[in-house]
């Protein structure tokens, strides 16, 4: 399975660079080749228990698929913005690609360094790949951009040491690279923009995303350190938790956001949410869907209490939430993407805050959340945190957040790139859901070495093609021109990756589909 997963990733890398070829293409190919060899070193370290931290079990290291996501995103963003003539975001894409390569190289060097005996051939290959990457960066980046890349690397190193120690068995090395690398980049961007505030420059919704992500992460780190010295399950600790959350929110996060957008954040948010009648209708509709999702949770827990203490939700039951998320995102993508952008940020902040309440057993809801959510655990939730629902939200939202709006043409979007904001809906909401449901109920022919079925994968591809046709009918801003063959190839490769990867598919698949569609 690891070899087939690697072949699919190599096929995606080659397909992207067949369309987008520049000096960074050599770096990406060198990085992919050395990551392929190094991931086997990581796998042996994980099996032997020789890794520095405790990583998630029942999965391979995932180094190769994770290593290529950020560099490829940077490369396709750079090309799209260069074609649109937006120099600022073209340089931003170069920085993203360089940062992703350096972070992946750091993880590779770490694995090689702690492997005993030292693997000579892999060391040479990693050294050669590193030389190509550093040489290209030297001739492509300005001094300020080099400093920015090194800042992100430094934040990533410290953040990894802290979070991987505090949260054992929550990530594979590849997932840690994606999640912590993304958080490190967001934190560095927020610091950079806070130090260089220019009134009227920058979209407030972008600042809202940066401040919300960094705010909830800092909140979690603060309480993790605090509850080392006191019991988090008492009423006194719970009252202190709620009080300090209010203090940090109103005393740190709100002023920080005010400095960036130069207006009262709460008034701006209320004005933004209720600006048009369409937004009001969408908010009411989303509230009803959220209530239905809560209803599913309560109903399934009622069944557990009446049937058996060990009753666990089935795969089909867990996919109910995928259908609800699709029903949430599609109207937002068609009618008001900016509202969907902000609503997804708010939802992410709420999800992470509720996970803190559950993890720290904060009264009065902490123990209740533990009981309710334990029904929906699977083998990927082997650590102290429950992250699958957060990954689902991220997988659906990242294509919306990362879509380069400034580089998109006004009016009707042409070509496969018009489907980029729908990447999460197609890959996770439709493809992964249909593959799981049909594969578990009617699948008979299994892919070699996996539990996934051939019927599930084929049905997922077919369902995504139907979904693309429906998007064309209902979203007048989408015009695919003659890019149907590229869309079919993109959907097929990502569906095959879903069949073979052991990483969190809710996070990985939308990003790869976005890369293919942007290319």
Automatic annotation (TrEMBL):
Enzyme Commission identifier(s): 2.7.1.108
Report if keyword Cell membrane is assigned.
no
Mind listing the UniProt keywords for this protein, alphabetically? Endoplasmic reticulum, Kinase, Membrane, Transferase, Transmembrane, Transmembrane helix
Provide the topology term for how it sits in the membrane.
Answer: Multi-pass membrane protein
| EC class | transferase
**Compartment annotation:** Endoplasmic reticulum membrane
Q: Where are the transmembrane segments?
A: 7-37, 57-76, 88-112, 149-167, 207-228, 240-258, 278-299, 320-335, 341-361, 382-402, 422-442, 454-474, 486-513
Check the record and name the InterPro entries matching this protein.
Answer: Polypren_kinase
Molecular function terms, GO-annotated: dolichol kinase activity
Q: Alphabetically, which GO biological process terms does the record hold?
A: dolichyl monophosphate biosynthetic process
Superkingdom field: Eukaryota
Annotated Gene Ontology cellular component terms: endoplasmic reticulum membrane
What family does this chain come from, according to its entry? Belongs to the polyprenol kinase family.
Q: Which PANTHER family match?
A: DOLICHOL KINASE, TRANSMEMBRANE PROTEIN 15-RELATED
Q: What is this protein called?
A: dolichol kinase
Per the UniProt record, the source organism is Tachuris rubrigastra
Q: Name the gene.
A: Dolk
């Amino acid at each position: 399975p690891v070899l087939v997963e690697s072949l699919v990733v190599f096929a995606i890398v080659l397909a992207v660079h067949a369309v987008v070829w520049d000096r960074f293409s050599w770096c990406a190919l060198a990085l992919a080749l050395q990551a392929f060899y190094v991931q086997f070193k990581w796998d042996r370290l994980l099996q032997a228990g020789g890794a520095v931290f405790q990583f998630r079990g029942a999965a391979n290291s995932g180094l190769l698929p994770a290593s290529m996501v950020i560099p490829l995103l940077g490369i396709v963003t750079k090309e799209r913005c260069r074609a649109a003539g937006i120099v600022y975001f073209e340089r931003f894409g170069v920085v993203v690609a360089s940062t992703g390569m350096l972070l992946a190289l750091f993880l590779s060097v770490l694995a090689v360094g702690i492997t005993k005996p030292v693997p000579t051939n892999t060391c040479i290959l990693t050294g050669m790949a590193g030389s190509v990457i550093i040489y290209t960066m030297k001739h492509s980046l300005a001094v300020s951009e080099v400093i920015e890349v090194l800042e992100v690397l430094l934040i990533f190193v410290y953040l990894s040491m802290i979070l991987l120690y505090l949260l054992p068995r929550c990530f594979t090395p590849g997932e840690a690279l994606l999640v912590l690398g993304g958080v490190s980049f967001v934190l560095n961007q927020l610091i950079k923009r806070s130090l260089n505030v220019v009134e009227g420059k920058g979209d407030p919704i972008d600042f809202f995303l940066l401040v919300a992500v960094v705010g909830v992460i800092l909140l979690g780190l603060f309480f993790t350190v605090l509850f080392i010295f006191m019991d988090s399950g008492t009423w006194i600790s719970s009252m202190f938790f709620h009080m300090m959350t209010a203090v940090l929110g109103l005393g740190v996060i709100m002023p920080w956001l005010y400095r960036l957008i130069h207006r009262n954040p709460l008034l701006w948010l209320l004005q933004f949410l209720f600006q048009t009648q369409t937004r009001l209708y969408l908010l009411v509709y989303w509230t009803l869907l959220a209530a239905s999702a809560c209803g599913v949770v309560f109903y399934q827990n009622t069944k557990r209490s009446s049937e058996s203490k060990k009753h666990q939700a089935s795969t089909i039951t867990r996919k109910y939430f995928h259908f609800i998320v699709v029903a949430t995102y599609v109207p937002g993508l068609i009618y008001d993407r900016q509202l969907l952008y902000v609503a997804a940020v708010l939802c992410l902040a709420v999800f992470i805050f509720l996970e803190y309440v559950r993890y720290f057993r904060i009264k009065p809801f902490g123990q209740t959340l533990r009981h309710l959510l334990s029904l929906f655990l699977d083998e990927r939730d082997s650590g102290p945190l429950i992250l699958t629902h957060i990954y689902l939200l991220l997988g659906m939202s990242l294509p919306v957040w990362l879509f380069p709006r400034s580089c998109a043409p006004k009016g009707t979007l042409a070509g496969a790139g018009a489907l980029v904001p729908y990447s999460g809906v197609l890959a996770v909401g439709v493809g992964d859901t249909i593959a799981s449901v049909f594969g578990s109920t009617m699948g008979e022919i299994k892919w070699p070495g996996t539990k996934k079925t051939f019927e599930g994968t084929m049905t997922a591809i077919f369902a995504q093609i139907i979904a693309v046709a429906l998007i064309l009918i209902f979203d007048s801003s989408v015009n695919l021109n003659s890019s149907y063959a590229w869309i079919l190839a993109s959907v097929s490769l990502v569906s095959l990756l879903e069949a073979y990867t052991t990483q969190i598919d809710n996070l990985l698949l939308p990003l790869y589909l976005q890369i293919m569609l942007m290319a």
